[in-house]
Specification:
This protein has 9 helices and 7 strands, in the order H-E-H-E-H-E-H-E-H-E-H-H-E-H-H-E. The chain is of the alpha/beta class. The longest helix has 11 residues, at 91-101. The protein is globular and about 45 Å long.
């Protein structure tokens, strides 16, 4: 099941959604069409913001590291941060703030502990994979982590991992990625709430 389908299954019909790091707004467009959500995007890249506007997505230009608190007066059902959390300077703070403005949040992240990444690092190179598609000097990533790292952070902060899916390098669920996610999952997908 692709990441978009997992997210769609976790979003309630007609809910209010904010997507941090929304890119061109295609996920919000899909959710508006399939789930009739009321959605807003937050993005910093001017080219992506232009695409959001072209796609009819309500978008705010904002640095997520500094701007999540600007949404505290809103009451969202779900906040989404798909493949963006590793790009933040303070991902732990961002998670806290996301759960202050929404009942739950969906986070997807590349797993730096995946076996292909481990081999590349062992061979002395930073990995390039489907989940981490650019060279080290082109990446926006500040804080790469493993599945274990992320789940440990959630446990330390008292977040509830309501649901989780572990996807292989083809972004599909498999028995192997579920059996040993820190080694065989290329991507983690989480539905998180506060206690």
């Amino acid at each position: 099941m692709p990441i978009t389908d997992i997210i769609k299954n976790w979003i309630a019909e007609g809910s209010s959604v904010i997507d941090f790091g929304c890119g061109d707004g295609s996920l919000l467009c899909e959710l508006k069409s399939s789930k009739k959500i009321n959605g807003y995007g937050v993005e910093i890249d001017a080219d992506q913001i232009e695409l959001c506007i072209e796609n009819g997505v309500s978008v705010v230009e904002q640095d997520i590291d500094q701007g999540i608190q600007d949404f505290f007066s809103f009451n969202f059902d779900t906040a989404i941060m798909a493949s963006s959390i590793q790009c933040l300077k303070n991902p732990d703070v961002a998670l806290e703030r996301m759960l202050d403005i929404a009942d739950n949040c969906i986070v997807t992240l590349p797993n730096f502990g995946h076996w292909r990444c481990r081999i590349d690092v062992f061979l002395g190179r930073m990995p390039i994979t489907k989940s981490l598609p650019v060279s080290w000097y082109e990446t926006n990533n500040y804080h790469l982590c493993t599945i274990k790292d992320f789940e440990a952070l959630c446990e330390e902060r008292g977040f509830i991992l309501d649901k989780r899916k572990y996807l292989n390098a083809s972004f599909k669920e498999s028995w192997l990625s579920s059996f040993m996610p820190n080694l065989f999952a290329a991507e983690g997908v989480y539905l998180i709430a506060k206690k």
